[in-house]
Queue: 4 jobs
Job 1
Amino acid sequence: MDPIRVLVADMVALDRDIVARIAAQPQDMTIVGSARGAAEAAAALDAHGADVLVTSASGTGSLGACLELMWTHPRLAVVVVDPADPRGLVRVCRLAEQVRGAGAAWPQYLLDAIRSAAVAARED
C-alpha cells in the first residue's frame, strides 16, 4: 500500500516541525509539505496532493478555510491538534470522530489519528 501522504499546516513553525518529525518516522507515512496557512496549504495540495492534513485548533486560519480545502480536495482527511485538549489532540474530520487509543503517548496518539483519518478518507 502507498504511504499516507501528510501535509502539516496552519501551526506555529515549531509545532509544524514537531508534528512533521513525528509523522515522518513511520514507514507508512510521508510528509508532502508544511504550510503556514490555508493559502500555502491549498498550493501544496494542488502541487503534491495529500491524504491527511494535520492542522491546529489554535491556528490562524478559519474553519471555513479548512472546509474549503476539504471541498476542493474531497478525499482529504483532517486531523486537528488542539493544545487546549488535555491529551493535546485531536478531532479527526470526515467530519469529526474521536480517535481510540487516547491512553497512548502523544506521538503514538498523533500517528494513530493520522492513520485513522487516512483509512476513513480512502474508504470514501
Job 2
Amino acid sequence: MIRKLLALGLPLAIGFISQTTISFTDAMLISRLGNQDLSGATLGISLFSLVMLMGIGILLAFGPHMARAFRQDDFARLRKWFAQGIWLALILGVVGMAILYNTGRILTLFNVSDDLAQIAQQYNQGAAPGIVFLFLFVHSRCLMSSVGKPGYLTIIMLLTVPVNFLVAYVAILGFNHTGGAGVLGGGLSSSLIRAVLLISAVCLLTRGRPFRHLSLTLQPGRLDWQAIRTVLAAGLPMGVRIALSEGFLPTAAFLIAGFGLEATTVHSFALRTESLITVFTIGLSGAAGTLAAWCAAENDWVGLRRLRYGLLSVAFGYVLLVGGAIALFYPQIQRYIYDVTDAHIISMMWNLLPLLLIAFLFNTLGSCYNGFLVGMMDTRWPTLVVIGSYWVIGLGGGFIVARYFHAGFYSYWIALGVSNLIIAAYNFYRTGVHVQRMVRERLHEPQPAVSG
C-alpha cells in the first residue's frame, strides 16, 4: 500500500509543488524590490491562494466519481463526470477572476493600508487570468490520477520550475534590474506558466497514447445541473475545508499586518516555506482519495485498513525528512533564498521555526487522512471540525494569546499547531470508523452456496 501511495502521490505532489513554486518564486524575486513590495505581494498571493484552494477543493470532488467509474469499466460515466468538471472549472474560474480583480477593495475591509492594498492589487491584476487555466489544469490532472496514471505530466511540471524562474525574473526585475514590471510582472508571468501547463495537459489527454482508449473530448456538451449539484454537495465542504485550513495563515497575514512591517515580513517568509513543504501532502491526500475510492468500489476493507496505517508511515517519514532538512539548512535558506541580512528579522525567524515545524507535523497527518475521507465521500463532519478548529480555536485563540499573553504574531502560529493537532486526531479516528463499518457490512453479506 505504501508503494501504491507513493506511485500515485509523488507525481501529484510534484504537480502541486510546481504550482506552489510559482508563487514562491514570485515572492522570492519580489523580495528584491523591498520589504513593502514583498508584504503587499504576499497579501495578494494570500488572497489568490484562498480562491485557488477553494476551487481546487470543489473540483477534487470529481475524483472519487471518476475513480469509481474507471474501476467499474464504465467509461461513459467517466467521460460524463470529466465533461461536467470542465463546466464547473470554467464557472469557478470566472468567479475567481472577479474576486481577484477586486483585491484592493477586499483588503481595505481588513484595515490593510492603501499602499499595501494597491501593491496586492497590482499582483492579482496579472495573476487573475491564470486562475481559469489553473482550475482546468487541476481537473485534467485529477482525471489522470483517477485512472492511475498521474505521472505523465511530471516532467513537464518539473521543467516549468526553472522556466518560471527565468520568465518571472525578467518580468519582475527586467534585464540587469531595469525594465521589469515589478509586482505586476510576477502576476503576469504566473498566468503565462499556468496557460502552458494547461495546453500540455490538453495535448496529453487528447493525443497521448495512455488516454486514447478513454475517448475524451474537450467539448463539455450540455451542462448537467444535477451532476453539478451532486459534486457541490461533497465538493463545497471540501473546498471550504481546504480554503479554511490552508487559508488560515494567509488570512492571519491580514491580522498580523497590525503588528508591523517586520512581523509581516517574517510571517511572509514562514508562510511561503510552510506552503511549499506542506503542498507535498496534498499530493499524498489526492492519492489516498483515489485508493480509498478504489477500495470502496470493490468493498475491500483490508485495503482500507492498510491504507490507513500506510498513510501514517508515509506522513511521519516525510515530516522527519523535510523537517530535519529545514532545521539543518535554515541559515542557508535565510541567506540565499530569502536574501535576509537584518539581524533582528533573522532572530525572529529562528524564534518562529519550532512553531512552524510543529504545525507542519500535524497538518501533514490531518491532510493525508482527509484524502482518505474524501475518497469515502465523507466531507461534512471533517469540514465542521476544520471550521471549529481553525476559525474558533485558531483565530480566537491566537487573538487571546496575543492580547493577554503578549506573544505577538507568534500567537497565531501557536494556535495553528493546536488546531492542526485536533484535526489530525479527528481524521485518524474517522478513518477507523469507515474501516469498521466496511468490516461489519462484509460480515453481514450473504455467503454464496457451496455446491457438491
Job 3
Amino acid sequence: MFNVLLLVIVLSGLSHIVADYLKKDVLCYVFKPLTTLLVIALAWAQTSTFTPVHYWVFAGLALSLIGDIFLMLKKDYFLQGLIAFFVAHVAYVIAFTHTSEFALSTVLLVVLLAYAGLLIAILNKQLGKLRIPVYAYATALTLMVLTSYSFFQVSGYELGLYAFVGAVLFMVSDSILAYRRFVKGYAWSQGAILATYYLAQSLIALSLTN
C-alpha cells in the first residue's frame, strides 16, 4: 500500500508540473489538490496510533490543501492562500513543539534569521500592502524550520529527520515562489516550486507515521 501510494503521489505531482508548464488549467485543477490529498492519504495509511502531534500535522496538511486551492485559482487569491499556509505553519509549529523538551540550535537560528532577513531585504520594495502579511508568514515559516529541528532532536522518532528536511524544502519552495511573484520569474521557477513543495509535504507527513 505504501509503495503504491508513494508512486501515485509522484505521478500526480509530475502530472501537475507538466500540466502547469503546458498551461492546461483543467488538469492543474485536478492534479494540484489531488497530490496533496494523496499525501494526506499516505500519512493516514501509515499511522496506526494517533497523538496530538499527528492531529496537528494532519491539520497542517488540510490547511495546506486549502492554500493550494486558493493559489491555483485564476483570480488573485494570493493573500488568502498566504493566510491558509500561515495557519498551516502554525499547526506544524505546535506539532513539532508538542514534546517535553525543546532543542534550540543557535547556529541554525542565526542562519535562518540571516537568510530570512536577506530575502525580506530583496523583496521589501515590491511587497506593498502585503508587507505585513509576508513578514508574518516569514516568521511562521522560520519558526516551523526551527521547531522541526527540535522535533528531530528530542522526539525519538526515527523519521524525525524527515520533518526537518521537509521544513527546509518548504522554505526553499516558498522562497522561490516569493522571488518569482515579487521580483522576477524564470522558466524553471514553477517546476522547482512544485517539486520542492510536494517533497516537503510528503516528508513532513512521513515523519510522523508509526
Job 4
Amino acid sequence: MSELNHTFQPSRLHSHQPGWFDLLSVIISGMLENAGEQESQLFLQQMGGQLAQRYPLNSAQTVRDLEVQMNLALARFNWGFVDIEPRENALLLTHMALPEGDNQLATASWRAAMGAVLTGLYAGWLQAQGGSERVPLVCDSVSDDAALLFRYQNS
C-alpha cells in the first residue's frame, strides 16, 4: 500500500454535506425499483465514466503515479482511497474507506451502486491513461465491508 494511503483521516473520508447522501439514496432506490438492478448498474457505470471525463487525471508514468492521481481525485470527493497492485497480466484495485450510505438503502445495494459508479470512474481513468476499451474493469467483490475489489485484465 502506498505511503499516501496512510495519510487519510477516517473522519474526513466519511464526512458529507447533509442531504446529499439522502438524495443519492432516494435516486438509487428509485432506479432499482423502476429500472431494475442490471439497468441501474449500467447507468451508474456510465455516470462514473462521465465523472472520469469531468475530473481527468494528470498523466501518470508509473502505477504509483496513477494511484496517487486517483487518490487525489477520490480525496476531493471524500470517497475513500484506492490501492493498485500490478500483477503480471492485470491490475488489482482495492477501494477502501467507501463512505457509508444513509442507512435507508440496504448496505448491499449501496455498495453495489457505489461499486458500479467506481467501475465506470476507474475504467474511464484507465482508458484516458492509454488503456484499451476492450480490456474490462470488473468489480469482483462488493460484499466485504472493508473494501471493493476491482480487476483490470484482458480476458
